[in-house]
Each structure stands twice: as C-alpha cells, then as structure tokens.
Amino acid sequence: MKKNKIQAIRGMKDYLPIDIAFYQRIEQILKQVISSYGFSEIRIPVVEKTSLFERAIGSITDVVEKEMYTFQDRNGDSITLRPEGTAGCARAGIEHGILYHQEQRLWYMGPMFRYERPQKGRYRQFYQIGVEAFGLSGPEIDAELILMTARCWKALGISNHIRLELNSIGSLETRKQYHKILVSLLKNNIHILDKDCKDRIYSNPLRILDSKNPAIQELLINLPPLREYLDSESNHHFLGLCNQLDIAGIPYHINQRLVRGLDYYNRTVFEWTTNSLGAQGTICSGGRYDNLVTELGGHSTPAIGFAIGLERLALLVQHCNLKLQPNRIVDVYLITKGPEKQHLGMLLSEQLRNLLPELKLMNNFCVGKLKKHFARAIKLGARFAIVINTDEIGDEELILKDFLHQTQKKILKTEVYSILASLLDLKLQSPIEDQLH
Ligand code: ATP
Ligand code: MG
C-alpha cells in the first residue's frame, strides 16, 4: 500500500535551488555592503533559553505572548526557537565579555521562528540578516546604519520603491509620562477600543499607537505626539540624527506613530517600508536599545541594530528590479560524446578546475543527442557548453558553444583555459602555483 506523504509544517517553506540562486545573489550584495562598513559576522544558536526572550523582548509583547515556538527539552528546561537575533547577540556579547569598554560591530544571518498566520511575506520560519552595533551612544552610528541600509537598496535597485520612516520613542521615563496621557484618552473612549487594545491598556499601551483599526487611528488624532514629551537628551539625539541624514541626502518621513513591537527599544526607531507588496510592507526595521545589555545582566552598553526580512526583500526585488539575475549555478556544461571517452571529459574538467578555481563546471554523464544536452545546459542557466566530440574531431580540438551569443566554434584544448578566463572574467591560476598547492 502506498504510504501517506509527509509534508512540511504549515508556514515553513522549502527554498529550492532555483530560489536559492536568487537569494544568494541578494545575500551576496547585502554582505558586501555590510562588510564595507567594517562589520563582522557572528553566528549564534537557533535555540536559546525562553527566559532570554522574555526578558529581552518583554513578556507583554505580541512576539512573546503569541508568537514564540517554546518547548521543554528532555531535561524539562524551557527553550525557544529564536524569534529574532538581537537578544542572542547581546547574550553572546555579554557571555564572552566582548562588549565591555569596547565597540562591537556585528552582523548575523539565519532563520527566525514565529507562530503567526502564514500569508504572503509572513511565514513561521523566515530569514533575517541583521546588524548590531554595540558601544556607541551618539547619533552618528544611527545615521551610519541607515546609510548602510540605503546603500543596500541602491545596490539592489529598489531605492525608488522603499521609504524610511523614523521616530524617537525617548527614554523609559518619557514613555511612562506619555502612558498616563495615552491611557486617560483611551479610558475615556473605551467603547471604541477593540479587544486587543483593551488588553493592552494596562500592559503595553504604546503598542495601541500602531493599531491598524481605523476607529482607533481616528481617536489617536487627538493625541499630542510622543515627540513633544521627549527628554532633552533624546530630543538632542534625534535632531542630531535628522541633521546627519539631511547632510547625507537621505529622505525620511517622521512617523509619530512608529513605536516598534519589542520592549527593548529606546530613542531612535526606524522602518523601511514599501507599498509594492500589499500588507506585509515592512522590509527592514530597527532601533536603539541602550538598556538591553544591562537588562540581560551585562555592563551598561549603548547599542543599535536593525534586521531585514529576506523573503520580503526578495519579493520586492523580484517585483521591481527585473535586471537582478540569480547567481549562476553553472558557467560551463561539459559534454563528452561517447561513453568510452568519458575519462577525457573528467580529465579536462579537473584541469579546468585546477586552473580556473572560480569556474562552475558541470559534467554531463549521460548519453544522448547533442541537442538534448544543449537543452539541459540552457535549463541549468549555463553560459557555455564545451563538447568533446570524439566522432568528428581529434582529442585536441573542442567545440565551444556560446548560449548568450548563439555562436559555436572549434577551439584547441590548449586554448580553452585562457578563452574561458577571458570570456567569464575569471582569474587564471598559473600552472606553477597549481603544482605547489
Ligand atoms: P510585522 O509588523 O510585519 O509583523 P515585525 O515588527 O514583527 O514585523 P521585526 O520583529 O522588526 O518585525 O522583524 C524585522 C523584519 O523581519 C521585519 O521588518 C520583516 O521584514 C521580517 N519579518 C518579521 N516577521 C516575519 C514573518 N513572520 N515572516 C517573514 N518576515 C518577517
Ligand atoms: Mg510581527
């Protein structure tokens, strides 16, 4: 009897090779930009103690209350699949003593897990690339991170489809004061509030500011903006940041309602959003979190970071920059006609790999008509096919088929290395170096 197929878990998708080639291109560009600012990679575990996220993100937040994948391990300890990367980075920094009295500029990439309703741009396992800068308190680093993201969008060709929203949520003290005003307005209009907002009045009223409910948004028009209550240092910081962005020519939109969903933020918060993807329009979000390291038991360390949702970014790039090509999986497809001559193909491929280490070459091992082999090469996205056609030409001669220009010519085996190096712009390793390695 045929057995049932086992399918992937809802909201967790497979990234097939064809998708990965596109993701790799995007990731390569992002990593290149991030590295150009002197940031280094950190890799942290995918699971952490549940208490880390409860303490860092805050117990009364959507992420911790509703979205975490929390389990007991075999020891009975409560562990959680990470819903974001900042808490883990701060934990690792404290644990290894690399934050105290020093700067750390870090980036990470990997899967995050949130139990949310799956839809386009919202998954239960999704990927983020994130950046965290520890040890700098001035607005310059805030501006630099924003410049870094703007440079990423430019390199990906999506600058015209994405805009920067910026706000300052001040200090904890600022927000406490503001809570009072907000709560009194909400209490006087309790009949307008939906269940979610009612639940939040006493637990986390600030989150009501970014409620999507139109009646609540209308009510909030009467509310004085949070920025009017900023403490003078936060205000100064914010003006400093705006000034730097003005000088750098980065347009921004001050969104008084932007508060962000996680408790650890203070002062600067920002989001890059798009209208091109429908509801899931936030591509990148971040902010300052000067109290998180202390909250997690470390020495006081100012910090700021952001995270980019890679699936949403890929959707946006696909939507508006058709020129960005996926990374090529195969440059050259090598075809040896006749099974008895396969060893010649294998030998030539190994020599090509020795002398052109960057070359992506796939060997064809099956018999069949040349036309079929070419079709396969094209499907793989190969730029060239090389044919060792033992029926027609001697071992010293090869056929080079160029799929881009749709040409075909005979070349000598001795020339093939330099021809490919020049056509594919690859570094040719000298045979002497080759022997040494
Ligand atoms: P949203 O308001 O869309 O739920 P968020 O505020 O929860 O986003 P962050 O915690 O700031 O998101 O995460 C940073 C980025 O990660 C987001 O801007 C988004 O691009 C991406 N992201 C967050 N949750 C998901 C998800 N469930 N699926 C895919 N991408 C996500
Ligand atoms: Mg969310």
From TrEMBL:
EC number: 6.1.1.21
GO MF annotation list: ATP binding; histidine-tRNA ligase activity
Residues engaged in binding L-histidine: 84-86, 114, 128, 132, 260, 264-265
Record-linked Pfam families: tRNA-synt_His
This protein's GO CC annotations: cytoplasm
Domain Aminoacyl-transfer RNA synthetases class-II family profile, residue spans: 1-326
Catalytic reactions on record: tRNA(His) + L-histidine + ATP = L-histidyl-tRNA(His) + AMP + diphosphate + H(+)
Record note on quaternary structure: Homodimer.
UniProt record similarity statement: Belongs to the class-II aminoacyl-tRNA synthetase family.
Name under which the protein is recorded: Histidine--tRNA ligase
